[in-house]
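quick one before i forget lol
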Amino acid sequence: MPDPTDVSTECHAHGEPMPDRTDLFPVCPSHGEPMPMTEDDEAMADTIRMLTPEDAARATLTSLACELGHDEVRVLTRVAERLKGGMAGYGPLRLESDMREFRAKEAREELEDALVYLACAWLKTESQEVNR
């Protein structure tokens, strides 16, 4: 059996998922807690990849997207396209340092703009129907 602690061993070449923490550390059957590490386990601990918050968020997003239907994915894609456009125009979103007042000002102004655009579209459609 391939050694999962050996990075040169291709133990997941056939599409099996990579092991998670419970696969790498034996679980005590009576308590369900990981068993204490031994000296042999210390070498393995250095090879465990720590997930960043971005990695975790991407994994959650991927998992959720896989459970959505076609139209839900289309809506999510549209939102992602808007975020990407914002990155291109304004740079990466950094919520912790962004000075905009999203709820009090930004969202209200965007909704007001959307109402104007929708009203224009409705009026344009109505005038086209009358002129037919």
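fyi The chain has a mean pLDDT of 78.
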